[in-house]
Design brief:
Length: 73
C-alpha cells in the first residue's frame, strides 16, 4: 500500500475466510468518509485503514457489520 495519509488505524476482523470476504471488507471500509486506502491481510485478519481524518473504530465496526463481519476484541 503506497498511499500516504495522516491517519492510520489498524483493526482485526473476525469471520474472513476467503478473497471474496477480503474484497467485501475493502469495499465497505472504503465507503467511510475520508478513507483513502484499505489493506486487508486475510491470513491474519488484520486490516489497515489510511484516511485524511481520524476514523473512529465504531465507523469501521459499522462498515464491517454491513459486510457481514465483526471487529475482534
Amino acid at each position: 500500500m503506497s498511499v500516504e495519509a495522516p491517519f492510520r488505524t489498524e483493526v482485526t476482523v473476525t469471520g474472513m475466510t476467503c478473497r471474496h470476504c477480503a474484497m467485501s471488507v475493502t469495499e465497505e471500509v472504503r465507503e467511510i468518509h475520508g478513507v483513502s486506502a484499505v489493506d486487508v491481510r486475510l491470513e491474519t485478519g488484520a486490516v489497515t485503514v489510511l484516511a485524511d481524518r481520524e476514523v473512529d473504530r465504531s465507523e469501521i465496526a459499522s462498515a464491517l457489520d454491513a459486510a457481514g463481519f465483526g471487529l475482534a476484541g
